[in-house]
Amino acid sequence: MSSGPQAQVTLAPPAPAFGRQTLADRESVLGPLMLAPALVYVILLVGVPFVLAILLSFSSATAGSLDFNWVGLRNFTRLLSDPQFHRALGNTLRFMLVSQVLVMVLAVTAAHVLDAAFVGKRVVRSLLLLPWAAPVALASMAWVWIFDSTFSVVNWTLKVLGLLPGWLYWFGEPGLATVAIVTVHVWRMFPFATVIVLAGMSAIPQDIREAAVVDGAGFFRRLFHVNLPMLLPVVTVAVLFGVVFTATDFSVVWLLTRGGPYNSTHVLATLAFQRGILGANLGEGAAVALFLLPVLLVAAVVMLRLARRAEVGT
Amino acid sequence: MTGRAVLRGAKRAALYAAAAVFTVFAVFPFYWMLLTAFKQNRDLYVGATNLQHVPWIFNDPPTLDHVRLLFFGTPYLVWVKNTALVGLAVVAITLVVAVPAGYSLARLAGRWGERLGIGIFLTYLVPPTLLFIPFARVISLLGLQNKLGALVLVYPTFTIPFCTWLMMGFFRSVPRDLEEQAMIDGYSRLAVIGKVVLPLAVPGMLTVVIFAFTLVLQEFVYALTFISQVERMTLSLGVPVALVRGDVFYWGSLMAACLITSVPIAVVYSSFIDRFIAGLTAGAIKG
Fold this sequence. Notes:
The complex is a heterodimer.
Chain A: H1 3-11, H2 17-20, H3 27-57, H4 74-80, H5 83-115, H6 121-128, H7 130-133, H8 136-146, H9 153-160, H10 174-202, H11 206-214, H12 219-247, H13 251-257, H14 268-278, H15 282-290, H16 293-313
Chain B: H1 2-38, H2 41-44, H3 65-73, H4 76-108, H5 110-122, H6 128-141, H7 148-154, H8 156-172, H9 176-184, H10 189-200, H11 202-218, H12 221-226, H13 235-242, E1 244-245, E2 248-249, H14 251-280
Antiparallel strand pairs in B: 1-2
């Protein structure tokens, strides 16, 4: 990769001398110059707010005034003894873990289905992508309506099939609300994961797969001993983004339950919004949101390792 | 022999059944939007306890009433306009910033370009849910509450990192020889970018336009934080938050809005999804 340009340079004389000195040709200037706007934007509007988020979490700042009082760890100590916060932290992890396990099982299965040749494959593939592509706030509203306490088509269907003796108030009971939220997360994330896994599967060399078939490996043996190990990096990416997207999700929970019933389904993001924006307590809201940081750090580290792998590999 | 044929047949059947199950699960909410958007109220608002009334089909002829109400009785068209304005501005900013940055990282920045590129991409992992609280303060300091300008300022924070990464990958795939040949012919680097690279990068820039626009359309948290005036809302905020009368949702119009907004985006998006995935999995799939 790096030998190409040098070889060229030694073969051909550089461009005419009068052109060499202008800015348009000085790559040591041009490079940083072209990169600068992006860097400045990212530093000013991601870096600075990020630091501000950390600073705010140590303050008693409110939305109404511009005061900034340093209160040390008070926001954090208060949160650690707050049962609502514990619930939100637990929910964030629970929703994330449960939905990611379901997403990966569905995605690996769906990718194997889509990998096989059948009539209408292209149509199925593009239909599968709909949930991921539709704006999440609007899709969530469709689910709110599907799980409506009076008009729920889910309840009707279960009733007709004779599977439902009583009635399900989806957003009125913590357990059911959790089921609803996880359903929407799974619905939204599995198509995305499927496409990623599918991309990984098409990168597995055909001869390896054929060799496994020739050697008489059955479906599950091939799945667990050939396909999944080879898919591991790509599955990691799918899980990584799935984890980041579900752990930091705000829209689904907010639109489905507003954190209810009785604040039982709050996640960190919605609790931060409720405390920080609706409750105008910016300091405490920032402190709540900062508990997302460990998840993001892990994600960043994994990303970096994958990137390093790619760098070494190519 | 026949046993084997039966087994093959069963396998095919299982394959089709699985494909059908996945498709139904994925499409069902959109089908439900469609039904709700065009059902007459007396067909729509029948309690689910009435087991004789089948909600899965049109029991009465479809109607356009909800769509008419959406367009002429609600601020839907204002939200469409706001979304288009914000979308255009954000797309323009993203193109102007991300395309040169992508080229610089791919060609001019050398070894540390790789690291910087990854660094910029990592900021894409910093979610709005972590930043909306500090932004709430920044936006109020700038006096931008309830202004579309707030969204135009903030949305590039997620479009720029992603699109820079996308363009970097794209420029890498342009053969170096083409550029070097043009430089040997006496063009400056800048002229090469304008005359050789950019025309080749049109598909990449088109991808950036599509993704920046759909990311804007998807966004909800910042809009909810900065905008409370109904006439200043964008589609993804106005439709779920403001299509209510008192406590009652206009479900027909609401689902019509969801359908009309989601489906075109979804169609465009899925035709570009492979590039999106290629961008995300750049490290994990080798060649």
